[in-house]
Amino acid sequence: MEYRGYDSAGVAVVADGAISYRKKAGKIVNLVADLEANPLPDSGLGIGHTRWATHGGPTDANAHPHVSTGDRVALIHNGIIENFAVLRAELEAEGTEFTSETDSEAAAQLLGREVSAGVDLADAMRAVCNRLEGAFTLVAVDALEPHRLVAARRNSPLVVGVGDGENFVASDVSAFIEFTRFAIELGQDQVVDVTADSIVVTDFAGNPADTHPFEVTWDLSAAEKSGYDWFMRKEIYEQPRAVADTLLGRYNTDGSLKLDELHIPESELRLVDKIVIVACGTAYYAGLVAKYAIEHWTRIACEVEIASEFRYRDPIITRSTLVVTLSQSGETADTLMAIRHAREQHAKVIAICNTNGATIPRESDAVIYTHAGPEIGVASTKGFLTQVAACYLLGLYLAQVRGTMYDDEIHAVMAELAATPPLIQKVLDELDPIKELAKRFIDQKSVLFLGRHVGYPVALEGALKLKEIAYLHAEGFPAGELKHGPIALVEEGIPIFIIVPPQGRDQLHDKVVSNIQEVRARGALTIVLAEEGDHEVDPYADVLFRLPKVSTLLQPLVATVPLQMFACELATLKGYDVDQPRNLAKSVTVE
Ligand code: M6R
């Protein structure tokens, strides 16, 4: 689970009527070294946590588990407890001494107080949950109950792994996929009471609660590096299959679309008068790409909005607005809050998500799963390509339902989309020059990316990858906007990646070729991504990378790949941890 947070880690076990624990700042290797030097007692019950710091720096003391005064309970927490200061003051007034600066310890101390007073562990957990505000997944053990743990969730993920004579709880299934594929998805505001042979789920009031069992469709190897140095590199190479799997079964042999999973009546889809795509980070950029296609195909106005901004600006959402959320993890708190806001305004919400059993699909009206397999590298890669592919399926489906494209037009686009996986593979097979290029960038301080139309979000995504994993200042701009300001950044030798639209089939091609000349005339080193056979760019490209011929709207599926690999290669050469870049975590489950 380290990809979810890696600034400190800890474990606790229950044995011999006591809780034993170790916790260490830094990556898990530090904890492992400590455990090797000071082993924990054998036990059949344990909890572990990797942290992404919110309250209190990444120190040993702030690492989880947090143990209540008197060592009665140990607890781990994901999320943010917003009213922790009030709770902490209350407990301190009673004489409780806190040993960390975290919000989480307030929950541990509250739980310890209840259990020490004789309250049953699950009842105590429910009582604690009812006092907490904010987002939390909590897992706790009691020193006197060596065969039982309790866990709870609100606005933060928790799944149960159902084994044979053993059970698990975790933030996601990759934690226990080695042991079982059978899982139970916990709903909002539920508590689960787990022993090796029993799983009891209730709501926060103690009433029995409905659960949703599911079977994980991928196996352990999908969550392993399989010989690659980084998950990110493996995931870049998985993209042809990931896109193919996302398209699989969603179109008929004649090219018409079938999105059986939508469960939104066609009559309702015909009434939609606005689409709002909401997402964060890379998923937001996938949404920006999708806007061009969706508006073009459906003639419905489509806005794309950063989820963390969405609900706080009182967006205009009505019953006839279709909100489409993109999230690889399905747990991004900003996106989840946007969904709740949209549904409060009676909008229909379709989630495009990669994670079965996650909160976002559960809280949406419908879901289109991207079948990318688990994405573990913190920098999203196959997430982006599959989100674009899924949005295109949705766009074509809406066009089909609303009759805004002729059948043969839909079939032609679908046929081209279905033909992209081998083209993505071709890009992957020809990446050596990009890898070589990275060697020239080790001491580079700043890089720019230019694109127009769908090439603009590709530029943004190329820049984000460099920022995230190579810690390099990088900016993406719409090439046409250059002359309105950003061109002042161009100085002798500055590298600029330019994504060139298809030649002869795109009205912006020549304008982008002019933009290349403009920056080159001012000393930039131009790195040009242009399609095969486009020789107009040759004189102005210091470095030229060829892309397969595709139509404009499909170009992001091939043009993004070299930019991903460039960032991966550069970060590797710089000696950085590509899969666990500083300050980041894979799933951002706090607002
Ligand atoms: O899981 P999500 O798709 O909701 O995640 C959204 C962003 O947090 C994510 O794309 C982030 O920007 C990645 N680190 C980008 O590489």
Characterization of the model:
It is a single chain. The strands form five sheets. This protein has a six-stranded antiparallel β-sheet, covered by helices on one side. The longest helix is centred in the middle third of the chain and has 21 residues, at 382-402. It has 591 residues and is an alpha/beta fold. The protein has three domains: 2-216, Aminohydrolase, N-terminal nucleophile (Ntn) domain (Glutamine Phosphoribosylpyrophosphate, subunit 1, domain 1, 4-Layer Sandwich); 226-418, Rossmann fold (3-Layer(aba) Sandwich), CATH 3.40.50.10490; 429-573, Glucose-6-phosphate isomerase like protein, domain 1 (Rossmann fold). Helix 12 (382-402) packs antiparallel against helix 13 (407-418). The model has no long low-confidence stretch (mean pLDDT 95). The chain has 18 helices and 23 strands. The chain binds 5-amino-5-deoxy-1-O-phosphono-D-mannitol (M6R).
Set down the secondary structure blueprint:
Elements: E1 8-15, E2 18-25, H1 28-37, E3 46-51, E4 66-67, E5 73-81, H2 84-93, H3 104-116, H4 121-129, E6 134-142, E7 149-154, E8 159-162, E9 167-170, E10 182-185, E11 190-194, E12 199-203, E13 212-215, H5 231-237, H6 239-247, H7 266-271, E14 274-279, H8 281-298, E15 301-306, H9 307-310, E16 321-327, H10 333-344, E17 348-353, H11 359-362, E18 366-369, H12 382-402, H13 407-418, H14 420-429, H15 432-438, E19 446-451, H16 455-470, E20 473-478, E21 495-499, H17 509-521, E22 525-531, E23 543-547, H18 555-573
Parallel strand pairs: 14-15, 14-16, 16-17, 17-18, 19-20, 19-21, 21-22, 22-23
Antiparallel strand pairs: 1-2, 1-3, 4-5, 5-6, 6-7, 7-11, 8-9, 8-10, 10-13, 11-12
The chain binds 5-amino-5-deoxy-1-O-phosphono-D-mannitol.
5-amino-5-deoxy-1-O-phosphono-D-mannitol binds at residues 280-283, 327-329, 332, 335, 378-380, 383, 468, 584, 588.
